[in-house]
Design goal:
Blueprint lengths: L2 E3 L3 E6 L4 E6 L6 E4 L1 H8 L6 H11 L7 H14 L3 E3 L6
Antiparallel strand pairs: 1-5, 2-3, 3-4
Amino acid sequence: MVWKRGGLVAEARTQSEGRVALLHLDATQPVVLEGTAAIIWDLINGHRSEQDILIELEAAFEDLAGQMQAQVEEFLACLEAQRLIEAAHTTSL
């Protein structure tokens, strides 16, 4: 699955602390992402697949417990449930 950021999502970030606050314009509470969550958000661009995101994370972090894939899938599902991301419609050539 290729994900893109939702069209109705406002974003504010702090560069020094690696934090990003997201607000779907129909929601009442923002979501604040830090650390790995903020890194995943930065990787979501409408072109990278879920597998591409996982590969980049595995290159940057050790997955000693072998649970990174499940955690990334769960996190992306949470972002989708909050309408912060949506499936990107890709076309094949």
